[in-house]
Write a structure and sequence with these properties.
The complex is a heterodimer of chains A (200) and B (142). Chain A has 200 residues and is α/β, with parallel strands linked by helices. Chain A has a domain of 133 residues: Nucleotidyltransferase, domain 5, CATH 3.30.420. Chain A is built from four helices and nine strands; from the N terminus they run H-E-E-E-E-E-H-E-E-E-H-H-E. A five-stranded mixed sheet of chain A has the order 5-4-3-8-9, with helices on one face. Chain A has a two-stranded antiparallel ribbon with strand order 6-7. In chain A, helix 2 crosses helix 3. The longest helix of chain A has 27 residues. With 142 residues, chain B is an alpha/beta fold. Chain B has one domain. Chain B is built from four helices and ten strands; from the N terminus they run αβββββαββαβαββ. In chain B, strand 8, helix 4 and strand 9 form a beta-alpha-beta unit. Chain B starts with 8 loop residues before the first helix and ends with a strand. The chains are: A alpha/beta (200), B alpha/beta (142). Strand 2 of chain A pairs antiparallel with strand 4 of chain B.
């Protein structure tokens, strides 16, 4: 043991703040705080070489949304005529089309389908298809807005259904419930290859 | 006048530093295209960034505009690329993932609002051919 207590000189820590400041600034500069959000979409399988004709879908089972190069939107819901529509109308049209609550003969046919509990056998429009055709010159923004509205229509229907059956929204449902609700309103959006009128 | 005690200042700064290290992520690539993503309402958060590959589409930034013009371009990693490069890019990205993560791979398309749909469709067709079917249109909340 040492005789006298040896005094250890204290480390001068006053520059520590500066060092950490520099590190802080480095991280502020090199990193980004973007929380990435987006619309999740599933693409269909790749086109096959010897593709057969697509299966025929009855006219009343299809909703066709067409956008031209001037960003005009045209919709044809079930058996009705093509008509020019506004972006804000699409969600409501799609909701009526997908649900077909009052079994309108112009809207998709209802089929009795066995669904997981708690739904049991239900009449749903299982063969409906929403077809979305764009032109090569359509702007991506409008495409995205329409896609957003179409997915929004499904989300709203699912949310309403979840509230009716479980008493709370779709997001609060557990996985089995969400799966059942998803099968009730199955997402059927098909995007045809865009047309190009007049060669570029 | 008594001197202000600053001995806790480093700890304070360190906590801010750690906060930033946790909530932010490293910027991976230098952007060579300008893009302003569209705004939507039906967005979901992108979980697990390591599974996400990015495709940027937009007009070249000012320094490249003299050389490349202002047509919409695709950027993969650090380079401008052609539509035909997407398949290789996806394959590389997929190869870098662990085997069990491969089915969960996602492709995030960060595209400018004014991009014509022609390019978008070519990109989507290439993604389908590369079996990268789970895609995300990056957007901001409206």
């Amino acid at each position: 043991m040492a005789k006298g207590k040896k005094k250890v000189p204290g480390l001068n820590g006053s520059s520590m703040a500066d060092i950490s400041f520099i590190m802080l600034i480095f991280f502020l500069v090199t990193t980004s705080m973007d929380t990435d959000r987006g619309l999740h979409v599933r693409l269909p399988n790749p086109p096959e070489e010897n593709q057969q004709d697509p299966p025929k879908v009855k006219e009343r089972n299809t909703m066709v949304v067409t956008v031209n190069m001037h960003n005009d939107i045209m919709a044809k819901v079930g058996n009705s005529e093509h008509k020019l529509v506004d972006l804000s109308e699409i969600r409501q049209l799609a909701k009526e089309f997908i649900a077909n609550k009052d079994n309108n003969p112009k809207l998709p046919e209802l089929h009795a389908v066995e669904l997981p509990a708690p739904f049991g056998v239900q009449n749903i429009t299982k063969n409906h298809v929403i077809s979305f055709v764009t032109d090569r010159a359509t702007s991506y923004d409008l495409y995205f807005q329409i896609e957003n509205e179409l997915y929004g229509a499904y989300n709203e229907l699912r949310d309403e259904l979840a509230k009716r059956t479980f008493g709370y929204g779709y997001n609060q449902c557990n996985e089995d419930q969400q799966l059942a609700v998803r099968q009730y309103y199955k997402c059927m959006i098909s995007e045809a290859e865009p047309k190009s009128y007049g060669n570029q | 006048m008594p001197e202000l005690n600053t001995s806790s200042l480093p700890d304070l700064i360190f906590s801010i530093l750690f906060f930033f290290m946790i909530v932010t992520s490293m910027r991976e690539v230098e952007l060579k295209v300008e893009f302003k993503v569209p705004a939507g309402t039906e967005l979901e958060k992108l979980e697990r960034k390591s599974l996400v590959s990015n495709i940027y589409i937009g007009k070249p930034t000012r320094e490249y505009r003299a050389k490349l013009g202002s047509m919409s371009r695709i950027q993969l990693n650090d380079k401008f690329a052609d539509v035909s490069h997407i398949r290789d890019y996806i394959q590389d990205e997929r190869a870098s993932l662990a085997e069990r993560d491969k089915p969960f791979m996602k492709v995030s398309i960060k595209s400018d609002k004014d991009t014509p749909m022609g390019i978008m469709t070519d990109v989507k067709l290439e993604l389908r051919k590369a079996w990268a079917l789970s895609i995300v249109y990056s957007a901001t909340q409206r």
